[in-house]
Amino acid sequence: MANARRILGIVLAAGEGTRMKSARPKVLHEVAGLSLVGHALTAAHKAGVTDLAAVIGPDRADVAAEVGRLVPSAKVFEQRDRRGTAHAVLQAESVLAKGFDAVVILFGDTPLVRPETISALGEAVQGNNAIAVMGFTAKDPTGYGRLITSGASLEAIREHKDATDAEREIRLSNGGLMALRGDIALDLLKSVGSANAQNEFYLTDCVALARQRGLGASIVEVPEEEAQGVNDRVQLAAAEAVLQRRLRESHMRNGVTLIAPETVFFALDTVIARDVLIEPNVVFGPGVIIEEGAVIHAFSHLEGAKVGAKATVGPFARLRPGADLGAKAKVGNFVEIKNVDLGAGAKVSHLTYLGDASVGAEANIGAGTITCNYDGFRKFRTTIGANAFIGSNSALVAPVTIGDGAFVGSGSVVTKDVPADALAVARGHQITKERWAVSFRARPENVAKAKKDR
Ligand code: UD1
Ligand code: CA
């Protein structure tokens, strides 16, 4: 019953991130629409970790808020002085002391670790095996801790700065993630000393300490790509590229057609049903759900939106948070939709802004319609009934309701409610003066001007 194991995940997120050259802490920079620390938390959650804790830098209310937003049950600890990775983990001592089958330590700046790797690490610490380390073979291992092995057994991890020349030849490196058997984790962590090149309490020392006690240590090997951390914005972009490649492949394998996959950008949480077609140059921000058979035409941008079955979006459409398109609804080119329930089969085909509105089924919104939802202070709602027809270039001044089946004449500025099945026309009357242009041109001053210009 592997699932019954209680596993604690601890995310170390106290990094200074000075190389990001940013006012924001490193772990709040985003890839695939989610903060770096969010990736660590999400991967741990997907891996079946039962409890989560995070260790953050001093006075980082912003990082604490992000952890709380994503995992409200996570315990957040502050590391006042940066005294090493083992010292960081020990900040979570009160949670560690509760007793777990396994403790997995993750880094908040390593967003490419797959949930499978985290569960493998958690599973590996059983019986006599007290430690499992995520290892990888580095093309250039400079800076990484080296994995010192004897046959299949991991004997120690030597930090680059403490390693001998011979040890520095080893390319098998520590990827940072580590699992400890829960019953011995605190004991090992408290035994770590700081007599090393950096005067730090190294988490990695737990390996040799466990071996001294006759306990086993093992390696879960991953491709180098997975162990890549983010220290600057070049590495941030490299991580983004890897994540996007994975997301594109995963959506295609799940039955989504991407005509030009390399031009489509997903968020980690994008949910897309099968037989959806996505044309080139589409961007998905966080919180998008697309149902079966929908089509997203080229150059569209979606965020916090839901697109119903067989609905179509774009080209050049923008769906903002709260856009909820019913089945077979149509949102065409140069249309922006925010916080709108668009009924089944409703059409908003061209050049329109709808904000804070509900639109009934099969309604037709003409080109150039604008919901005037904001008076500079507050937002107001527009309600458009089923089968209503809004003529082109109308302004609907909210709060206002257009009843089911009602018509609004083109170019209207609608400020009062329109009952069901009524016609509302709110524009100047047309005046037509026969032959007016002829007499205008014949005015003496106009005749003289025309002659001079010739
Ligand atoms: C660490 C490992 C090294 C491994 C490498 C992989 C140790 C001692 N070394 O080295 O073996 O090859 O990662 O990238 O673990 N942190 C804190 N508080 C601290 C120190 C670190 O929260 O006092 C956090 C950092 O924010 C970061 C992580 O722990 O998320 C790793 O710290 P870092 O200083 O980058 O360790 P490395 O020297 O890279
Ligand atoms: Ca590092």
SSE blueprint:
Elements: E1 7-13, E2 30-31, E3 34-35, H1 36-46, E4 51-56, H2 61-70, E5 75-78, H3 85-90, H4 93-96, E6 102-107, H5 115-124, E7 129-137, E8 146-150, E9 153-158, H6 165-168, E10 172-181, H7 182-191, H8 206-212, E11 216-221, H9 224-227, H10 233-253, E12 257-258, E13 271-272, E14 277-278, E15 283-284, E16 289-290, E17 295-296, E18 301-302, E19 306-307, E20 312-313, E21 317-319, E22 323-325, E23 330-342, E24 347-359, E25 364-365, E26 370-372, E27 382-384, E28 389-390, E29 395-397, E30 400-402, E31 407-408, E32 413-414, E33 423-424, H11 436-441, H12 444-453
Parallel strand pairs: 1-4, 1-6, 4-5, 7-11, 12-14, 13-16, 14-17, 15-18, 16-19, 17-20, 18-21, 19-22, 20-23, 21-23, 22-23, 23-24, 24-25, 24-27, 25-28, 26-29, 27-30, 28-31, 29-32, 31-33
Antiparallel strand pairs: 2-3, 6-10, 7-10, 8-9
The chain binds uridine-diphosphate-N-acetylglucosamine and calcium ion.
